[in-house]
Amino acid sequence: MAGPELLLDSSIRFWVVLPIVFITFFVGVIRHYITQLLHTEKKVELEQVTDSQVLIRSRILRENGKYIPRQVSRKFWGFFEPINCCKNLKKKKKVPKPISDPSMLTEMMKGNLTNVLPMILIGGWINWAFSGFVTTKVPFPLTLRFKPMLQRGIELVSLDASWVSSASWYFLNVFGLRSMYNLILGQDNAADQSRIMQDQMTGAAMAMPPDPNKAFKAEWEALEIVDHQWALESVEEELMAKDLNFEGFFSKEPQMAAMF
Question: Which of 55, 207, 229, 236 is deepest in the core (most CB within 10 A)?
Answer without folding.
Answer: 55
